Sequence to fold (410 residues):
Amino acid sequence: MAMEHPHTATPLAELLREADQNNPQIRAGRQAWEGAKQVPSQVSTLPDPEFLIQQVNVGSPRPFAGYTNSDFAYLGLGVSQELPYPGKLRLKGEMARRDAEVVQQGYESVRRSIFAALKSAYFQLSYFSQALGILDNDRELLREIEQSAEARYRSGTGTQQDILQAQLEETKLLEEDTHHHLQEGLLEAQIKRLLNRPQSSPDIKASPLSVSALGYSYDQLLLAANNQNPDIGATEKNIERQKLGVDLAHKDFYPDFNVQYMWQRTDPDRYRAYYMLTFGVRVPIYRVRKQRPELEQAQIDLARAHTAQEVETAQVASDLREQYLTAQRTDEMLKIYRDGLMPQARAEFESGLSSYQSNRQEFQPLLESYRDILRLDEEYWQTAADHETAVARIEEITGLTLAGTNTDKE
Fold:
């Protein structure tokens, strides 16, 4: 049974906006970024102060019994504050900001990846929709063949085998039609998953395929990718973060401080209150075992970040080159189909049909020319879908809008 579709196609741009709002992976990435932005103020703020209460007795364990037993008993109130070496908190805040920017780039990478997957599924859905239209149109050609075979058979110049072959070909069309409907259903399920729609929701109909012009050279696309690709951007932010980590490791060779202020009260009838200020220093005396390995680790992490950037940059350049060549090749193939193969195949079929009807050609060459039309029509639109998928992947890599279908960035 054929799958029913809504009459109105849903524009791709509308689906992209819906995915941007509802896709759980995009939402999770956005939430992770929002959470990471809350960290810098936490780590760049002074540690919470410590408030102290002291009560000293002499000669009795009971609280506040010391005034009657000894002149040395007292009650004290104070506050203590840790003070990291100047610059440490700022560096920690900057590192947390770089971490948040890395998470932001990861969110953008996920967002682009979901968009590319949605576009690819949409283009394939459009292809199968148009392929079904091709089958309907070419079925009319097949009926012409079958009618001509029946006419020749009735006139005694044809064979029953010609009619049976035409009927067999029509059965093959029905099989292909069923297969295309199945693929449509699978693609709609994939799109609904990306949109976070219930699978029982109404079916999705894609707009007809249109071929996008690339409009950029490979070098221009590579420059855009190096500037705007989120995976490369994440490695750059990580390098900045690791540089700050090296600076912080140097700072850890310097001491941290502690300031404490205490008010102490003995017998108020006999003595005045005491006020005590204490300044402490935490000295990093285990440098060989602690600070130097920390610095070496930070320097190794920085070198590893540079290596990761080289790997990611090379990978992006390779992926971009592959998609660029695919877009170029499919664009050239579309021109060959459109300007050469398809009109030539139709001209050959029309000539062959006329010759067969006038008993100047056998049935098998006519059937083969019909199969050529069907195959070339489907290959054309499959190539168009492959071209648009390559363009979508280039958009994902470069951040450029080539087909006019990207949603606005936040």
